[in-house]
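[Automated response] Your request has been received and processed.

Submitted sequence:
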Amino acid sequence: SKTCLNLAISRMKLLQNKRDVQLKQMRKEISQFLQAGQEPIARIRVEHIIREQNIWAAYEILELFCEFVLARVPIIESQK
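Generated structure:
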């Protein structure tokens, strides 16, 4: 239903914002590790950031798909 789609879109935006804040913090931490000469730890964190960015991108795709379906709900309902 429209309500569920709107809730899903809102939830994905919220999760994206949360991950965005986490990614910014992780980038700062990586910078600190590199400055302290702790390259192995920084590399591990970079791998984690890449995974998080992929998840963020997946949320964005799902959000766009939900918006697409939401825009088509009237058409779908009219064909019942």
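Summary generated for your ticket: Residues 39-78 form the longest helix (40 residues). The chain has two helices and no strands.
If you did not submit this request, please reply to this message.
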